[in-house]
Design brief:
The chain is mainly α. It has one domain. 79% of the residues lie in helices and 0% in strands. Helix 3 runs parallel beside helix 6. The two termini are 30 Å apart.
């Protein structure tokens, strides 16, 4: 039983290490921005981070569901950044924000970034805990 717990802990710690390096470190610029601006991050910076991380995670992804999700999140973040403000204008934005989906719409950049990070964390859990892959990949002996 103790051996199984040690093996499980080794897998989970590998997963946590991969999350820290692949998911958390790229968010450091947003953390610095938040600290400098009284914990406020501009929506366009979150959308740009979502777009960049979606593309980066798409390249390393192995599952079709995750690939499709990354493409959709990339398109969503780009379209939201360049589309809703120009096309909708302020009256429509105000109407959208006052509906029951107003919180998600008002915080769409945060929702998209969180979705990107959650999908990649789940994918990494599958790699490192379920499939028992090492991290970083170059540690694998051919």
């Amino acid at each position: 039983m103790l051996v199984k717990l040690k093996l499980l802990w080794a897998k989970v710690s590998t997963w946590l290490f991969s999350i820290a390096t692949i998911v958390v470190f790229p968010l450091l610029p947003l953390g610095i921005e938040a600290k400098k601006n009284a914990y406020h991050i501009k929506e366009e910076n979150m959308l740009l981070t979502t777009a960049v991380l979606s593309v980066a995670f798409f390249v390393t992804s192995e599952g079709n569901f995750c690939r499709a999700a990354y493409v959709l999140l990339f398109l969503y973040s780009i379209c939201w950044e360049f589309g809703i403000d120009a096309a909708a204008g302020e009256p429509m934005k105000t109407t959208i924000e006052n509906t029951y989906t107003g919180w998600m719409t008002a915080n769409s950049a945060f929702v998209a970034l969180t979705a990107t990070l959650m999908i990649h964390s789940i994918e990494r859990f599958n790699w490192h805990v379920v499939l028992n892959r090492r991290f970083p990949d170059w540690l694998e002996k051919g």
